[in-house]
C-alpha cells in the first residue's frame, strides 16, 4: 500500500493563507476571532499557529494596504495590567454583496453575451465575495443556454475599443438574420457576396439588454448608424485609415452627446430624430421618462391624460407607439400618425376572425 505524502506549507505562506481565510469566510456580518482563524489554518492548511503570530500577520496585511477591520477591547490581565484584545477581524471588500448582485443580474439580463462567457464572468464576480454570498445567489442561475451565440463578441469589443482610442476605421461583416436552422445569415450584396462594412467607430453603448456600436459609414459619413455588436463578425482594425472626425459629421459636429443620442434612438435605428407630440395616460408618465429621459416636455391635457413632446427617431417611435398603443395617441407629425394607424389596422385585420 502506497502512503500519500502531503507537503506541509512553509511558514512564509502563512500571511497568504490568513488573507485567503478572510476572503472566504469573513464580512461585516461574519467576523472572525484569532482563535477561529487559527482553527481554519490548522484544518485547511495544516498550519498550527499561535494567536500572536496570527495578529502579527493581520497587522502586516493592513500595513500592506488591505482593508481589514477589527475591534479593540481593554481587559485587565492576571498581573493587574491593562491589555488590549484584538478581535472581530473581517475583510472590508471593494464591492458589497448588493453591488455584486446588481452586476451579476446585469449579466443575466444581458441578451448579447455568450452563455459560457457570461457564466465565467459570474464566477469571477462571485470570487470577489465570500462563501456566504455564493450560497445566497444559487437561485438566480436562470440563463438560457440555447440562444444563438457570437463567440467573437469579446474580441470584437476589444478591437472596437482600440479603434475608437486610435481614431481608426474598422471593417466587418454583419449578421442580418437567422435561418430556420438557427444559424446566422450574413448581409449580402445583390451579387450574393458578403457585404463588407467600413465604418468610423465613435462609441459603444448598452441599451435594452444589447450592446451597440455608434458609427458612420466611410462612404456616407453624414448619417449616424447603430449596429448591434453581438451581430458583428470578422472584424478588422484598419490601421492605415483614420476615422472621419465627428466635427466633419453634420449630426455630430458638436460632438457625440450620448444621453441625447440614446433618448432619440430608443430602439437604436440610427436615423435623425423628429419632433413628436403624443397624448398619454397619466399612469404611464414613469414609462415615458424611462424611455425618453428627462428632456421630454410634459404638460397637462385633462384629468386622465398628459401631452408629451420629444425628439426621437420616427421608426423607433412607430415601434414604441405600437407597444404602448392602448395608452397613447400620436398627435404629430401627421406622417407618423398615419403610419401608426396603418400598422394598427393591419394588426387588427389579422385578429378580426
Notes on the protein architecture:
- The chain is built from eleven helices and twelve strands.
- Strands 3, 4, 5, 6, 7 and 8 form a six-stranded antiparallel beta sheet that branches. It has a four-stranded antiparallel beta sheet with strand order 10-11-9-12. The protein has a two-stranded antiparallel ribbon with strand order 1-2.
- The chain has four domains: about 10-90, Arc Repressor Mutant, subunit A; about 95-140; about 160-255, SH3 type barrels; about 275-350, 2-Layer Sandwich (Alpha-Beta Plaits).
- It has about 350 residues and is α+β, with helices and mostly antiparallel strands.
- Helix 1 packs across helix 2 (about 35-45), helix 1 (about 15-25) crosses helix 3 (about 50-65) and helix 10 (about 315-325) packs across helix 11.
- The radius of gyration is 29 Å and the shape is elongated.
Outline the fold blueprint:
Elements: H1 14-25, H2 34-45, H3 51-63, E1 68-76, E2 82-91, H4 97-109, H5 115-126, H6 131-136, H7 153-166, E3 168-178, E4 184-186, E5 197-207, E6 210-217, E7 224-228, E8 232-242, H8 258-264, E9 273-281, H9 285-292, E10 297-300, E11 305-313, H10 314-323, E12 328-332, H11 334-351
Antiparallel strand pairs: 1-2, 3-4, 3-5, 3-8, 5-6, 6-7, 9-11, 9-12, 10-11
Helix pairs in contact: 1-2, 1-3, 4-5, 10-11
Question: What's this model, at a glance?
Answer:
The protein is α+β, with helices and mostly antiparallel strands and 353 residues long. The chain has helices at residues 14-25, 34-45, 51-63, 97-109, 115-126, 131-136, 153-166, 258-264, 285-292, 314-323, 334-351, and strands at 68-76, 82-91, 168-178, 184-186, 197-207, 210-217, 224-228, 232-242, 273-281, 297-300, 305-313, 328-332. The longest helix is centred in the C-terminal third of the chain and has 18 residues, at 334-351.
